[in-house]
Amino acid sequence: MAWHLKMLNLLFFWQFIAIVNIVSCEYLTVNTCSGPIVGVPQKTFVHQVPYISYKGIPYAQPPVDKLRFRVPRSVKPWTEPLVTTNEYRPSCLVIAQAFLFGLKSNQSEDCLFLNVYTPVLEKSKTKRKLPVLFYIHGGGFNEGDGTDAFQAPDFVMEHNAILVVINYRLGPFGYANFNLHGYTGNMALKDQRKALKWTKKNIKYFGGDPDAITMIGESAGAVQVHLHLLSNSCKYIKRAVMLSGNAFNYWSYYKNNNVDLFREAFKNELGDQTSDEEVLNYMINAPAESIVAKSPALDIISRTTLLFYWTPVVEDKRKAVHPFLLQKPHDIYANNNFCANCRNVEVVFSVTSSEGFSFLDYTQPYAWIEALKSSSYIALPYHGLTLTQDTAKYQAVQNKIKKFYFGDGEIEQTPERLNQYVQLTTDTNFVIPFYEAMRLHSKVAKTYCFYFDINLNTNIVKLPRNLTDIEGMGHIEDTGYLFKINEPKYSFLYDQTLADRSNEINRKTICAWKFVTKLFTDFARKGLVKYDNPVKSVKNAKCIHITNDGLRSITRPHGRAIKFWRKAKNCLYPFIVDEF
């Protein structure tokens, strides 16, 4: 009898433990419109603030087999709990010739997942209504993913906001336009729109406010955020931030039909099957590994201008299914062809002070000198320019550009010359389109500008590559103050910084993590109330100057260069037709 009582007591004990575990874990479960999802408890890097991660939520059906190159389809609902873990689901395929990031993540064609991070720990989260940051990663349209390699949520969680980071199809899988019915490109943008719609519908279950979604993108991600602002995506968002990119970057657009790229890359496999339909049929059925191995990624037509092969396109309305972009951006602005929602979205355009140095070959930072002895090395960054490089006018403008940045002296291997070259590539690839976007969009909606110029201990390009002779902040380095970067090549910078808080530069770095993230989360929460100085004219645009010591104001950064480039474009204007 005593033995039976002992077993009964033991049974009651384990039942009690099970109930306690169920109750204690209920706060991890959210019941979305797609189905129940169980998260994982986490703590932040700096202050050990608790939050919950939900990694690997499917937002669309796998774009495989006959769905390759097609519009994403809505995810099928589930009834059993989707139990997430500390592991991310596969990232989208990266073609072999891409080299900007070199991520070694698990990759698959079945990759349409998003990750949600929330600081809301209550069992019922729908009453909180926190601001939401919806992030689109960069990577030249060919690389990147939604993992914490470059977008860890720690800093955002400490500012009481929700972060959503997504995967979307890349390279040919995400952008190839065959100009055939149902195969008109922009799959990546349609993936993003599908993820945005899922977020709008479900973020309340994570404690987010569906009416306070701020879309943020960096580099190629920023280009795509800008294109969302030119589409009907505006009805899903309240605000938007474009870091180091917009639709007017020269590298944001290649051409409208990609079939010739496939014809060349797969000419041995295609043989005489070279019609558009035959190429499409082959590519739909080709092994994904073959597409990854043989598809081209980018062409550096000049060391001053990048050119990516797989980019957003303008779709043919007669052939597109759920088209995303039906007009060129310049035409949309010229015709004032915006949906009403887009006029209510507050936007920020942003650049860093020295974008160009992130694209240097850091093993040979002066490799460009020999080529620059000829002005023909300098490209003119204007789509639709009908002048060829062998014309006298084209060459005259090239010579003026060279003289503006380098003067008449000998170009030698000195830090001064290196910084001049970096400013040339910064202005050409980023600052010119930054001003063009502000000029046009400030006429449509409330528009602000950020100018990043931090030089501290988590500048993830400059320090690991020992480019300390270069002044300013490089491309992608701004994101290292909004997100903790866990990619092993850079994560040590964060560990070193936090380990020694007695060091003054480390203290400033930690402070910068805080004031940069606060700037973004405050903007998502209520707009730029404290810095409400929207751009009225680019001639006197006042930007928030983000420095080592905090937030300042700067009027028309790179103004002298922009004045020069405006004159150069005016000279070329009669020869620019049908600009993207």
Characterise the protein shown here.
The chain has 580 residues and is of the alpha/beta class. The protein has a domain at 32-349: Rossmann fold (3-Layer(aba) Sandwich), CATH 3.40.50. Helix content is 33%, strand content 17%. It has 17 helices and 18 strands. The protein has helices spanning 2-25, 148-151, 154-157, 171-175, 187-202, 220-229, 259-265, 267-270, 276-285, 288-294, 329-334, 369-372, 392-406, 415-441, 488-499, 504-526, 559-572; strands at 29-31, 36-38, 40-43, 50-58, 82-83, 113-118, 130-136, 162-166, 177-180, 183-184, 208-218, 239-243, 298-302, 305-308, 346-352, 447-453, 542-547, 550-555. An 11-stranded mixed β-sheet has the order 3-4-6-8-7-11-12-15-16-17-18, with helices on both faces. The longest helix has 27 residues, at 415-441. The protein is globular and about 70 Å long. 47% of the residues are buried.
**Percent of residues in β-strands:** 15-25%
Q: pLDDT below 50 for ≥5 consecutive residues: which ranges?
A: 1-23
Q: What integer value in Å does the Rg equal?
A: 25 Å
The CATH superfamily of the domain at 32-349 appears as: Alpha/Beta hydrolase fold, catalytic domain
Question: How far apart are the first and last residues' alpha carbons, in Å?
Answer: 87 Å
Biggest β-sheet: strands ordered side by side in the sheet: 3-4-6-8-7-11-12-15-16-17-18
